[in-house]
Automatic annotation (TrEMBL):
Entry's Gene Ontology cellular component terms: cytosol
Gene3D superfamilies: Aspartate/ornithine carbamoyltransferase
Domain Aspartate/ornithine carbamoyltransferase carbamoyl-P binding: 2-144
UniProt superkingdom: Bacteria
PANTHER family attached to this UniProt entry: ASPARTATE CARBAMOYLTRANSFERASE (PTHR45753:SF6), ORNITHINE CARBAMOYLTRANSFERASE, MITOCHONDRIAL (PTHR45753)
Entry keyword Disulfide bond: no
Classification via InterPro entries: Asp/Orn_carbamoyltranf_P-bd, Asp/Orn_carbamoylTrfase, Asp/Orn_carbamoylTrfase_sf, Asp_carbamoyltransf, Asp_carbamoyltransf_Asp/Orn-bd
Naturally occurring in which organism (per UniProt): Roseospirillum parvum
Name under which the protein is recorded: Aspartate carbamoyltransferase
Length: 310
């Protein structure tokens, strides 16, 4: 593949290859930054039209640890504010002989559209409520390192499933790899027809969490709710927030996951988020750098010599 636009369409061997490659980068991803040379002379541009802490920083770290030059485009101060379109911006950047463009955009499908207009590799850093492929890969790596495998596990994805690209990418990856996926949300936050993605849908946390191996919590993505109903925080926490009592229904060795950013006291109680034995939220962030190194590694090797580019 020339781009990484989503998990949908990746085969099990392709997913395993990315996870195996990421696993080999875990030590190097931790630093102290002993730089690799795979991407020396290559340029990676981060183009983020939405806020990010984890994704943007870890792509920058990953690319630098492979020896690349990295540029972070500030969309707030770019010529996008003078009316230049997304496509013209990408074509302009492409003319500077980039190797990879990491893009986050509020519209589902915008990253794919952009990938059709440029010669460089395009990596989806999250597009609307569509996909966030590197998040699903880092979640899978975290689970695999803790549990040893993905197949046969039962994973509950809980909260605002309707607006979540993280949920969609995780559903594609986990079902492709043989895990059973449940989604648990109030009816208003469950997309209609979600069962067609091969998941079981629940509107009751207590029923959905019974005997699961993994509990993955999602933030209420109010920025994508537009005019639709936004639940009351207190009510949402009472019925759908993960606390000790609800967690007790999962398997005793169930892992607690959250892609971040977390809203403590909304979808997750601090006591659970900070559980030193079962919460792997910080490990997810750590795996993010190794996974992004693996994605850059595979796309760089696919591209071949820098002289062949553009
Ligand atoms: N999980 C995630 O994508 O975090 P950021 O929005 O901080 O990048």
């Amino acid at each position: 593949h020339r781009h990484l636009l989503g998990i949908q369409g990746l085969t099990p061997p392709e997913i395993v290859d990315l996870l195996d490659c990421a696993n080999t980068y875990v030590e190097q991803s931790r630093g102290p930054a002993k730089k690799g040379d795979l991407m020396v002379g290559r340029t990676v541009v981060n183009l983020f039209f939405e806020n990010s802490t984890r994704t943007r920083t870890s792509f920058e770290l990953a690319a630098k640890r492979l020896g690349a030059d990295v540029i972070n485009m500030e969309t707030a101060t770019s010529s996008l504010n003078k009316g230049e379109t997304l496509i013209d911006t990408a074509v302009t950047l492409n003319a500077m002989h980039l190797d990879a463009l990491v893009v986050r955009h509020p519209d589902s499908g915008a990253v794919q559209l952009l990938s059709e207009k440029v010669n460089c590799s395009v990596i989806n850093g999250g597009d609307g409520s569509h996909e966030h492929p590197t998040q699903a890969l880092l979640d899978a790596l975290t689970i695999r390192r803790r549990k040893g495998h993905l197949d046969g596990l039962t994973v509950a994805i809980c909260g605002d499933v309707a607006h979540s690209r993280v949920a969609r990418s995780n559903i594609h990856l986990l079902t492709t790899m043989g895990a059973e996926v449940r989604v648990i949300a109030p009816k208003t936050l469950l997309p209609s027809g979600i069962e067609a993605m091969g998941v079981k849908a629940f509107t009751d946390m207590r029923a959905g969490l019974a005997d699961v191996d993994i509990v993955m919590m999602l933030r209420l993505q109010t920025e994508r709710m537009g005019g639709s109903y936004i639940p009351s925080i207190r009510e949402f926490f009472r019925f759908f927030g993960l606390d000790r009592e609800k967690l007790a229904l999962a398997r005793p060795d169930a892992l607690i996951m959250h892609p971040g950013p977390m809203n403590r006291g909304v979808e997750i109680d601090s006591v659970v988020a900070d559980d030193v034995e079962r919460s792997v939220i910080r490990e997810q962030v750590e795996m993010g750098v190794a996974v992004r190194m693996a994605v850059l590694d595979r796309l760089t090797r696919e591209r071949g010599s820098p002289d062949a580019r553009n």
